[in-house]
Amino acid sequence: MKLSILDQAPISVGQTPQEALEDAKKLAQVGEQLGYERYWIAEHHDLPGLACSAPEVMLGYLGAATTSIRLGSGAVLLPHYKPYKVAEMYNMLATLFPGRIDVGIGRAPGGSAEATEALSDQFLQQVWKMPELIRDLLHFLHQGFTKDHRFSNVSAAPVPSIAPKAWLLGTSQKSAVLAAKNGLAYAFGQFMSDKDGKEIIRTYRNEFQPSQNAQEPSVILTVSVICAETIKKAHEVASSSLLWKLQLAKGEGKQGVPSIEQAINHSYTEEEKMELTKMKRNMIIGNPNEVYAKLRQLQNDYNADEIMLVTITHEIEDKLTSYRLIKQEESCPTK
Fold first, then answer.
1. CB 262: neighbour CB atoms within 10 A?
2. Radius of gyration of the chain (CA)
3. 60-95 pLDDT, tens per residue?
4. What is residue 61's three-state secondary structure?
5. Second label for 192, Cα 20 to 30 Å away, from 219, 223, 288, 298?
6. Neighbours of 64 (CB within 10 A)
7. Which domains does the chain carry?
């Protein structure tokens, strides 16, 4: 089973953004040492507690600090940008780090309405133009992808020996069809969706059309995971990110991911307890054996080629331990 990492570069209470980004580097390095397939970092704008607004900058830093793990965006929020500039940035990365760069594409704003307005003009109109933006991006990443393109004589220099692999990130039938018809690999965000992912992925596979970007359909399933030595410890570690989600939903949590102690000592209302129960249903929390078994089951149920794990903790060591324990469980002779 291929396993990968999605990092949202969270900032913990008492931590600086620089320290959070250094933790992101540490996670990419440890992920490489453990044998994870790829490391993606997310793009967010003016969101409290999240440190990465420019994946393309961070990926250059991470590429220089690693040697083999694939690196990518999860995702470039394409409606904010001109496809040509995105292609130039990721071609540059692919030139520096051959055969290691992915460009994940998304269409969410990645921040508040005010941040969206500050970042780009006519965002909603650009969302409606997503099919065109994707075709333009693929044209520049794979010169000649689109016949008779209006920019057929323009190259997104430097042109790497191995083009970045483009993925579309989504949680809907619409995104699955868009990925399939453009020959894109597809990453389904199960951790942020309550839709029938199995049917969505089935649609993608059935409608996939081979392209220069991908000859066969390829699916990543992204799930929220907390793994620790014991089930009790895993739930203690998870309490930080769960409390933070509750805080963010109420417009709080601006200091970042709370500590386990803060989470344990928090006085939860009945409504918050119900919300916690709901959130836990969309997460995998447990010991190594339990977590790995559930990941295997998800891979089979969703017909996924790869599972990508997103793990948010207050302490970086708890996060690294979670990823380490899962890989150790995978390497057991009986697995």
1. 16
2. 20
3. 999 999 999 999 999 999 999 999 999 999 999 999
4. helix
5. 288
6. 11
7. 2-225+305-330 (3.20.20.30)
| Burial zone of 257 (CB within 10 Å; 0-12 exposed, 13-18 middle, 19+ buried) | buried
Cis peptide before 217 (omega within 30 of 0): no
Instruction: Name which of 48, 51, 41, 29 is nearest 77 in CA terms.
Output: 41
**Residue entry with tokens 């009986």:** 334
Which tens digits make up the pLDDT trace of 261-307?
Answer: 999 999 999 999 999 999 999 999 999 999 999 999 999 999 999 99
Whether this model's pTM surpasses 0.85: yes
* Ramachandran category for residue 187: left, alpha or beta (phi over 0 → left; psi -120 to 50 → alpha): beta
123 touches 79 (CB < 8 A): yes
Give SS3 for 21. Answer: helix
The letter for the amino acid at 109 is P
Q: Residue type for 54, please? A: A
CB atoms within 10 A of CB 88: 17
Three-class secondary structure of residue 37 per DSSP: coil
Whether 204 and 178 have beta carbons less than 8 Å apart is answered as no
Residues with Cβ within 8 Å of residue 330, at least 6 apart in sequence: 1, 3, 292
What is the Cα–Cα distance from 329 to 293, expressed in whole angstroms? Answer: 10
